[in-house]
Specification:
The structure is a homodimer. By secondary structure, chain A is an alpha+beta fold. Chain A has eight helices and 13 strands. In chain A, helix 3 links the parallel strand 3 (about 95-105) and strand 4 (about 125). The radius of gyration of chain A is 18 Å and the shape is globular. The two termini of chain A are about 25 Å apart. The interface of A and B includes residues 221, 223, 249 and 254 of A. Strand 7 of chain A pairs antiparallel with strand 4 (about 125) of chain B.
């Protein structure tokens, strides 16, 4: 039995603090709203035409990876060594099958590689060169690592390295770069915790979640955050919820955040919103964690809590308007 | 307030099916019992002298890695490309801090590298070359990858590749190798799911867990199983339990097994043994998962369920005898 009116797609594009320099902020905000809106419209149409939750989150994350505004795929941040290391994961709530790749630098679309791991291997997580060889064997597009580089992200790395030195030297020298030099954005790019993700419920009642990231600017090579770790940054189970996280990845790993929400619902009879709010507003801060998540359950209830000043986010139910938001306090109809 | 009488260490050395060829099995069994016994005695002594749970699981896994009988560190299995890729994780139940390395081939003691990630970096998981560079910077010993190789494991790889070909060819050709040619062992090495791990409770009431593995024989390069994934193969939280898993890693990832036990205790008020038994005997088989785990809670209760024919295992409470076991049905005093 299908129920198209319940189908929903929700996406996020990372959390962060509000930029100090707000010149031109209205135009900046409009750019982000427009990007989120376009992606949601595409995924909403797919769901409306009977597409699966798995295909809807795949499409949404594909488009988020391609958009240089967000830290995933093209436009990914740089590591300390000025390279890129991308992570992605996808999970099917109907079967609990999952696939992920981590620490890859040549796969053009990391989320598609994660899906190939799920559908075309017996494994869940492949990393580094082994993941790239698998993607190539699957016929996925490989690119030169420089493909992912943008000037805005390079400036962001230089800023981060200078900020680190300034802090280390304690010399109080003025920073050469201001964050506003890097990428005109409503959320401060120098302190934004970038990830993209999507969760969806389709008309057949199936849930899916997908997450993709370039990690943290200036990160140590080989560092893997919560994004590609099933249970930490990504989880989906038809019996409870689909969850995609963004924030200080290490704390999300230690708290097993995505799965914790499902476990609170399954064993503690908590509602989706009660579970998500508690984890983001109480459990995560207790670990020193900052960030947020998007989550949807099988009844099409939506929860998008975050404990930072902003999170790029939005959702679209089939047959309803698309909603997008950036800052805390912006109420979104249909969201708890 | 310390309570030395409650302190306990438990270890495992992997699960598997019972070897078909049982010639010499009594001597084989004695070899494994002796190895497990010696490791438990060392860790028990450390706990008796007031050592921490974190130090006790570190010591036990160090010794398990060094023992060629078990698939971790020296004596690790080979990948399909005849290389080694090692994974390890450790977690401190008092602070929820954790550290892990994955897909490393030159770090002599992967568990020590995992602990260095926990204590000397801001990260939780480092993989591949980045993890090796970090270990080197920390002064940990690096070795040529051939260091981990043993002839028994090389024969095991050849057997696995032949078995794979035989299955693919459907030609019914007799296998050249029998598992008994490889490593005389009570559990069938050709189908053993090797991992080593330890959980401990110390006299101050702190829990810790650690796990280390060479992964699956003949695995695809870059494959990461549950061992180094916090929440999947390894978890510790003083409020609930310390858990270390072994088995078909992908299913443990999809079920977030180690954390699931803690969540059932925290949100569902289940006892450690009820939670562990349900996860291993019901949840895991529903996903097609085979394996087991060792778990201890803050009241010194122990649970060691597995759904295979055997699991190398044992435990030692401070002031009590050491117990070791291999097969299902062997009752261990003091264990549920």
């Amino acid at each position: 039995m299908t129920n198209p009116s319940k189908a929903i797609i929700a996406i996020h594009g990372g959390v962060g603090t509000i930029s100090r320099s707000h010149s031109g902020s209205a135009a900046q905000e409009a750019t982000y709203h427009k990007a989120l809106n376009g992606i949601l419209l595409s995924a909403q149409q797919m769901l409306n035409e009977g597409g699966s939750a798995l295909d809807a989150v795949s499409l949404a994350v594909d488009l988020l990876e391609d958009c240089p505004l967000f830290n995933a795929g093209y436009g990914a941040v740089f590591t300390h060594e000025a390279t890129h290391e991308l992570d992605a994961a996808i999970m099917d709530g109907a079967t609990l099958r999952a696939g992920a790749v981590a620490c890859v630098s040549r796969i053009r679309r990391p989320l598609r590689a994660a899906r190939a791991v799920m559908e075309r291997s017996e494994h869940v997580l492949l990393v580094a060169a082994g993941a790239e060889a698998f993607a190539q064997a699957c016929g996925l597009e490989l690119v030169d690592p420089a493909f992912f580089s943008t000037e805005a992200r390079r400036a962001q790395l230089q800023y981060a390295i200078l900020a680190e030195r300034t802090m280390m030297d304690h010399d109080g020298a003025a920073l050469v770069f201001r964050s506003s030099d890097m990428l005109p954005a409503p959320l401060d790019e120098s302190r934004k915790l970038g990830t993209v993700g999507a969760v969806a419920l389709d008309s057949r009642g199936n849930l899916a979640a997908a997450t993709s990231t370039g990690g943290m600017t200036n990160k140590r090579c080989g560092r893997v955050g919560d994004t590609p770790l099933v249970g930490a940054g990504t989880y989906a189970d038809n019996r409870t919820a689909a969850v995609s996280c963004t924030g200080t990845g290490e704390m999300f790993i230690r708290g097993v955040v995505a799965y914790d929400i499902c476990a609170r619902m399954a064993y503690g009879s908590q509602t989706l919103d009660a579970a998500a709010q508690h984890v983001v507003m109480t459990s995560l801060p207790a670990l020193g964690g900052r960030g947020g998540l998007i989550a949807v359950d099988a009844q099409s209830r939506l929860s998008c809590p975050f404990n930072t000043e902003g999170m790029y986010r939005g959702h679209a139910r089939v047959g309803e308007d698309v909603y997008t938001a950036i800052y805390a306090g912006e109420s979104i109809p249909g969201s708890n």
